[in-house]
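pinned: reference chain
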Amino acid sequence: MKTTKNTKRTKIDAMRMKDIIAQLTDIIYILCNAKKSNISIILDQFTNITEEELNSLNIFFPPDTDN
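pinned: its structure tokens
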């Protein structure tokens, strides 16, 4: 029974991490009008999340545009 509880806890932690990173990405994108490369640099400087972790959490950035 303990393993089920740990698995559930891990899933909840992963969902929270995804929510936090997604919100941080939205704030950077909206407030700073940042592009994908800038968001990646900012996340790299202020978090320890890797590109693989972002991909596993299905967090994708909007495409870079020249608008």
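why pinned: The chain has a mean pLDDT of 77. The first helix runs from residue 2 to 32.
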